[in-house]
Amino acid sequence: MKNKQFISAVMAVAMVATSMTAFSAFADDDKEGNHMSDAIPVSFGKELTDQQLYRLDDDWYSFSLDTTSKVHLYTKFNFYQEYNGTYYEIVDADNDYKTIFKSENLKPVKWDKDFYLPAGNYFIHVCSESQNFSANYDMNVTVATPEEDSFDALSNNNLGNASAIKFDTEYTGHLYDNDEVDYYTFNLAEEGMVTLNLDSSMDNVDWKIYNSDKVAVEEGTFSKSDNNEEDSGISAKKSYIMTAGTFTIGIMKNDKSEKAYGNYTLKLDYLKDYNNYHASGVFACADINKDGFIDAGDATVVLSYYAYLSTGGKESDLNVWYNTEFAE
Questions:
Q1: Which terminus of the chain is less hemmed in, N or C, by CB atoms within 10 Å?
Q2: Contact 93, 120 (CB under 8 A)
Q3: Distance of CA 323 to the CA centre of its chain
Q4: Cα three-residue angle 252-120-152, rounded to 5 degrees
Q5: From CA 123, how far away is CA 110, in angstroms rounded?
Q6: What is the pLDDT of residues 138-196, one digit of tens each?
């Protein structure tokens, strides 16, 4: 059934594809697969050898996935130098023919790359826009169950379809090759401190916070290197004082990471009375006067301490000085 749907989709764009410069192909010895409309179906695990790519040439291949899969693409190009304007790409046939990956200029080496893709229909497009390029190449495509079997849907990958979330609740998502961002929205009835908590096996995850006008007001990167543990994943948090309103958080794939795909867990905490916060966990160090709360009294102690140092005081330990000067 899926193959029939795929053939129909291809025929529907045949006229469009042949009219676009990027999809055009000049005559060469391999007459098949020069256009999206006559893409060659891929047989998983069966190597295609001595495929021909000539100057100003396009080769198209198609494949379908019945479930979310890890797709391994192996290609080896048999030529002697790098050529500008030669590349291969992965195209999502079910989502407006979006290019979800485009390689750098082809080089005379083998290319191995994994893609994490949900069920659907896809093209592999091998292209030469160079007048001087001519080469044969080998290609093999294999599929397997992903190492991590929890993939979220594509329902919240744009700002307009952000998923509504609640505070103090964990949400598990997944970033992969054609779902590079997930959006979540929440409302604040009144000003408070919002803490973002994110855990993931990925190396780095980018994030942004948008206001009700869809303008980014904060952004950054959560990194496993922040944990000071080489083999650990990400375990990070960020806190912001936020006014009342509607906000959206974008969790985004970091393209510079060696491992930029995988699961993550997101949780938001909300604290209304952040100026009189009971000290615990990461905030305990701010409780200077050790009364169990973070409030204006802590600032008073700090100011008094620096006033003491300005008079020539030698004591450098704030806690010792406080216990001496403010002991009951």
A1: C
A2: yes
A3: 49
A4: 35
A5: 20
A6: 899 999 876 554 445 556 878 888 888 899 888 878 887 667 889 999 999 988 888 89
Which pair of structure tokens corresponds to residue 46? 């069966």
Question: Whole-model pTM?
Answer: 0.51
Q: Which of 192, 195, 187, 196 is nearest to 273 (CA)?
A: 192
pLDDT at position 284, please?
Answer: 47
Can you list the pairs that 15-19 forms with residues at least 24 positions away whose Cβ atoms lie under 8 Å?
Answer: none
Closest CA to 180 of 218, 208, 199: 208
**DSSP letters for 241-282:** EE-SEEEEEEEEE-TT-SS--EEEEEEEEEES-GGGEEP-GG
C-beta separation of 321 from 315 below 8 A: yes
What the block records as the tokens of 70 is 């890890």
Rounded to a whole number, what is the distance in angstroms from the first to the last CA of the chain? Answer: 80
Distance from CA of residue 311 to its chain's centroid? Answer: 54
DSSP-derived 3-state class of residue 111? strand
Query: What residue has token string 């905030």?
Result: 283
Q: What angle do CA 34, 39, 44 make, to 5 degrees?
A: 130
- 208 in Cβ contact with 216 (< 8 Å): yes
Instruction: Provide the residue type at 24 as one letter.
Output: S
Residues contacting residue 87 through CB under 8 Å, at least 6 positions apart: 102, 103, 104, 105, 106, 126, 127
Q: Which residues contact 55 (CB under 8 A, 6 or more apart)?
A: 26, 128, 130, 131, 132, 133, 134
Q: Which residue has the tokens 């826009």?
A: 129
**CB-CB contact of 115 with 79 (8 Å):** no
Band the pLDDT of 209: cuts 50, 70, 90: very high
Q: Which residues contact 310 (CB under 8 A, 6 or more apart)?
A: none
Task: Check the CA dihedral 15-21-24-26 and report its sign.
Answer: positive
CA separation for the pair 306, 169 (Å, rounded): 42
Q: How far does Cα 313 stand from its chain's mean position?
A: 52
